[in-house]
Amino acid sequence: MEKFGTHVLCLFLLFLFLLFILTKQPSSSAFSKSMVDHVQKSMTNYDSETMLEKEEDEWQMVGKKGNQFVVNNQPFYINGFNAFWLMVFAADDSTKEKVTEVFKQASSLGMTVCRTWAFNNGQWRALQKSPSVFDEDIFKALDFVVSEAKKNKIRLILSLANNWDDYGGKAQYVKWGKDHAGLNLTSDDDFFSHPTLRSYYKAYVKTVLTRVNTFTNITYKEDPTIFAWELMNEPSCYSDPTGDKLQDWIQEMAFHVKKIDPKHLVEIGLEGFYGPSTPQRTQFNPTNISKQAGTDFIRNHQVLGVDFASAHIYTDTWISTQIADTHIPFIISWMEAHIEDAEKYLGMPVVFTEFGLSSKDSGYNSTYRDTVISTVYSSILNSTKKGGSGAGSLLWQMIPEDTDALDDGYAIVLSKSPSTSRIVSLQSYRLGLFNS
Fold it and tell me: Is-catalytic flag, 101?
């Protein structure tokens, strides 16, 4: 009501000013100037308030309507990137500025979503030092990441665990089970099935989701800066190729996250391999062994509580490290298959949450990398134009200058890659047209 009153007052003052100009004599020029200044100041305040309201309206929780993401009931297509290292860098004053730097660079090219790790278990600068024992300084570093993302209008996909050993992974949970609970565990895949290890993960998830950010004073589960929760980075369970063990874990954990936080979107974190439930689709898998991963793209994503699908694209590790023409047709067919399945069977968006090309590949050149990126972007746009399920993609990975230790071969430094930056910026622009 107060803002409404301010708007009315501004319009009334403007009316008085116009009336004054029409009726007063030139001799009252001093008063006239004073009135002009006052009205201009009032209208400036009106504009700034309107802008603030508009900004607040736009920064709402991302939702889903059918096979599209929406914000304020408007489509929200994604052009984004990965930066797994943000929390660790934010924990050190000497590298903290790099977090802000990469967000600013990405934002300048119109990128809107970043995927990063919200976990580090039992390792150097661990967030979780042992089951349910947290390092508050590292948690504050994660708080900083979230607050800086918001300042730069970047939304975050926060991944809650790792299938692989980096940053602890499921292997660390198994080690804790042996060391802290004396469990007789024989495989890292016991992470998915043993009730004690499940309880460790669930307690961790609850702590993160209910965390109150020390910079913004907003609880994570209430913060629109967080685009979605990812259950795990690339979960796989080769010890059970039927997929039943992993399916059961996904069902329990998706429900657990939604019970604590029904507002945010949830995704699994899958690479996208097809499994036993759809033998006719395994032809799209890059290798025969990928159908033994214990994952099942369609079945896994039909779980209650999972809001959108994910898939990764790595032709140089799945097909051949030798740069070859066969990479491009695979990218197109892989993406088309997942977009089609997301539309026909899942009724949800699909995001290609990791893709890239390594500079360590035989025959690598930056021009071919740009071709790979452009191919992914074109496939997204082809779906977007038709209102399809192709909802966006996230480059793996982006790093700022002077962080060469982070380069796994796939890293892109935008300031040193003008041609790639142009492609990224153009994709942001094109998707922005659909978002508007």
Answer: no
List, as one string, the DSSP characters of 246-295. Answer: HHHHHHHHHHHHHHH-SSSEEE--------TT-GGGGGGSSSGGGGGSS-
E strands present in 207-250: 226-230
Q: Is the dihedral of CA 330, 298, 343, 436 positive or negative?
A: negative
Burial of 75 from C-beta contacts in 10 A (0-12 / 13-18 / 19+): middle
Residue among 148, 230, 234, 343 flagged as catalytic:
234
CB 264 within 8 A of CB 240: no
Contacts of 297 (CB under 8 A, 6+ apart): 270, 272, 273, 274, 275, 278, 281, 309, 311, 338, 341
Burial class (CB in 10 A: 0-12, 13-18, 19+), 433: exposed
- Helix ranges, 290-351 (H): 297-301, 315-318, 327-341
User: Are the beta carbons of 80 and 121 closer than 8 angstroms?
Assistant: no
Token reading at 124: 């150097």
pTM score of the predicted model: 0.88
* pLDDT attached to residue 5: 45
| E-assigned strand segments in 74-172 | 74-75, 78-82, 113-117, 128-130, 133-134, 155-159
**125: helix, coil or strand?**
coil
- The DSSP symbol for 74 reads E
234 part of the active site: yes
Can you read off the two tokens belonging to residue 120?
């580090």
CA 86/CA 92 separation, integer angstroms: 11
Choosing from 230, 271, 343, 354, the catalytic residue is 354
| Helical (H) or strand (E) element with 6 | helix 2-23
Q: What is the pLDDT of residues 321-364, one digit of tens each?
A: 998 889 999 999 999 999 999 999 999 999 999 999 999 999 99
Q: Are 86 and 116 in contact (CB under 8 A)?
A: yes
Distance between CA atoms of residues 129 and 123, nearest Å? 7
Instruction: Provide the residue type at 202 as one letter.
Output: K
Give the whole-angstrom CA distance, residue 44 versus residue 47.
5
Cβ neighbours for 365, distance < 8 A, ≥ 6 positions apart: 323
Q: Backbone phi, then psi, for 382, in 5-degree steps?
A: -60, -35
Could you give the C-alpha distances from 55 to 51, 52, 61, 114, in angstroms and in order?
6, 5, 13, 20
Q: Identify any residues that bridge with 317 across adjacent strands, giving them in sequence order.
A: none
Beta bridge partners, 229, equal 158, 266
Taking only the tens place, the pLDDT of each residue in 136-151 is 999 999 999 999 999 9
Q: For 144-200, where are the E strands, in sequence order? A: 155-159
Q: For residue 436, is pLDDT > 90?
A: no
**C-beta of residue 258 within 8 angstroms of C-beta of residue 221:** no
